[in-house]
Amino acid sequence: MRNWVALAAIAMLGACGQKAALEPVEGASLPPAPYGAEVQPSADELLELPSEAAPDRSVELRTRSEEREDDPFDLPPE
What we know:
Layout: H1 2-16, H2 43-47
């Protein structure tokens, strides 16, 4: 009996991960267009992250260890 309950719970949780196109709920609309925008963005356009929100990784990698310069603010604790 427990196995059937666990199997049913897993099946229901698996159905929660279903992906489909996002649409506003009936009777509701998308948020108003941003100030200055000429067209109302779609739901997919609203979900896109701007480049500032997810910046690319810097490719500047160190190839060898280097000595640190003297830091005048690196003071011992008091």
